[in-house]
Predict the structure.
Amino acid sequence: MLNFINQLPKAELHLHIEGTFEPELMFAIAKRNNIEIKYNSIEEIREAYNFNCLQDFLDIYYAGAAVLIHEQDFYDLTWSYLEKCAEQNVRHTEIMFDPQTHTKRGVSFETIINGISRACKNAELKLNVSSLLIMSYLRHLSEEEAFETLQESLPYKHLIKAVGLDSSEKGNPPSKFKNVFEASVKEGYIPVAHAGEEGPASYIWEALDILKIKRIDHGNNCFEDELIKEIIARDIALTVCPLSNTALKVVDDLKYHPVKRMIELGLKVTINSDDPAYFGGQVNTNYIELQKALGLTKDDLYEFAKNSFQYSLLEEDIKRERLQELELFFEDHQ
Ligand code: ADE
Ligand code: ZN
């Protein structure tokens, strides 16, 4: 099973680049930028990764991201993640980045996007991993600030495929961002959003009806008959993040993870790492731990991988190629 998961061609659809920041690289970048961080060792950093809720994590995550200053920092962060993709046979990844986390500190949009997209281009050539970018608005900030970010992004529109919505969910419903999502779609960005991670089912409804999202990030709190019916009718996938859910106490134990119920109800599920440096595992570890906890079959895992390509934002011809590659693998590894 371990080999099967490691070799399974897959896509990752829910990944925050700032959440891939391993303590070793954080220390190295802090040092070269002459920035003090409040931890004395890598062990001390890891000990701090003990969260009771989403906000506990976000406070530490934003503090960590504050050492990223130069284009090369964003390049190194992204390249390091893409190398891990290649090792795990992640053939395609859709990377979220939070421009406001950096522009608020005086780092330019250009610095961020150039560093990240240069690493992505290089990975396509050297690692055979394809990628695209999802610019995420921070929902604890105002819609006006999201509009400023949209404006800043326009010269780099050709490098960005989609817009997302992340950060503190409770008290920040999707409806708060109605106008900026409408404007983003007009600019050609595809809308996705975190919904129903800690927030209620009504936030998922708002994300669908008001933001018109094409994919639900998390969606754990989707268990209402009418909502399930609607998600299925619209053929929308959920980007589920098992180890994130246990790390942030969204789920008590993987044994009780709702993913099995989701599958049984006919929902389209993909498996992802969210913020792998903080939650104890890359995407393959998420597959492995979930398989062990729920006794999933190779068919179940194949279905997750299939959904990951099917519900990616790849162009149809490339999507078909990736799906064929997966099918050939599965015929050989049943
Ligand atoms: N930003 C990074 N990870 C996140 C998560 N799991 N939920 C909301 N915002 C995030
Ligand atoms: Zn997320």
Q: What stands out?
A: The mean pLDDT is 98.
